[in-house]
Design goal:
This protein is of the alpha+beta class. Helix content is about 50%, strand content about 20%. The chain contains nine helices and eight strands. The chain has helices at about 10-30, 35-55, 55-70, 80-100, 110, 115-125, 135-140, 145-155, 160-175; strands spanning about 1-5, 180-185, 190, 200-205, 210-215, 220-230, 235, 240-250. The strands form two sheets. Strands 1-4-8-2 form a four-stranded antiparallel β-sheet. Strands 3, 5, 6 and 7 form a four-stranded antiparallel β-sheet that branches. Strand 5 and strand 6 (about 220-230) form a beta hairpin. The longest helix has 20 residues, at about 10-30.
Length: about 250
């Protein structure tokens, strides 16, 4: 199955984007080729851009506190495992403490690094990080693998409490819904929401289906169009499409 996630709030949209960026940094940072380490730095710069546009620390702390308060109310629920509940609450408490411990604005240690900021500025130009533009960076990309990996780790580590915190929030969000089976007749599906609230949608499709969903939603209705993929412009599927739909809400 392929899972497509669609955020219905700006906060969840930001968390999903950050999760994707952090995953890319973590993946490329442990590779060995200089071009892969270049990709790790590009993703790190993207995180920095998002951090510049929003107060991630306070927003994430607010969301974690909200989740902790909501989970505390479940202690008297006999259907909830107290051991599992305590594990989640401890995880949230650790994330809150680690985020509080981040000094200053998120990513300030990167902004204070003039060498990295020079690279970031050049990467905004197509082909701007070529060796003749940044010879010192070209030299760095040819340093021993271990040294490059260690330095990327040093730049990433101060930001990891944010990744840990958003991972907890998204995990709780993803586990909050129950999938329901549906059929999009002629590739189109519509459902009136009738006051149903959600922060994210999940659509699961069989991997072998050559189509992808285009989603539009508001507080009144959800519309999904399954578009055929192949050569040329995508078009609405002519056949019926079976899929699973999950409304996720915290």
């Amino acid at each position: 199955m392929i899972c497509y996630e669609y955020p219905l709030s700006e906060r969840v949209r930001t968390l999903l984007r950050l999760e994707d960026m952090f995953d890319k940094v973590r993946y490329f940072a442990i590779q060995e080729d200089g071009r892969q380490h270049h990709a790790a730095l590009l993703a790190l710069f993207e995180i920095l851009e998002v951090a510049n546009r929003a107060d991630l620390k306070s927003d994430l702390l607010q969301e974690l506190e909200r989740q902790r308060h909501g989970l505390e109310l479940l202690r008297s629920n006999p259907a909830i495992s107290e051991q599992r509940l305590n594990q989640v609450l401890d995880e949230i408490a650790n994330c809150i403490a680690d985020i509080h411990a981040i000094p200053g604005k998120l990513g300030q240690h990167l902004r204070d690094n003039e060498w990295l900021m020079a690279i970031k500025q050049r990467t905004n130009i197509p082909g701007g990080a070529c060796e003749f533009d940044l010879p010192a960076y070209h030299y760095w990309l040819h340093l021993p693998v271990m040294r490059r990996q260690e330095e990327i780790g040093e730049w990433l580590t101060p930001m990891l409490p944010i990744y840990d915190g958003l991972s907890v929030v998204l995990k709780l969000l993803r586990e909050s819904g129950k999938p329901a089976h549906h059929i999009a007749f002629g590739g189109a599906f519509q459902q009136m929401l009738a006051g149903k609230s959600a922060q994210m949608l999940q659509i699961n499709l069989r991997r072998e289906l050559p189509c992808a969903p285009e989603i539009s939603a508001n507080k009144y209705a959800l519309n999904i169009r399954f578009m055929s993929l192949g050569k040329g412009r995508p078009r609405l599927c002519e056949s019926d499409v079976e899929f699973e739909l999950t409304f996720c809400n915290l």
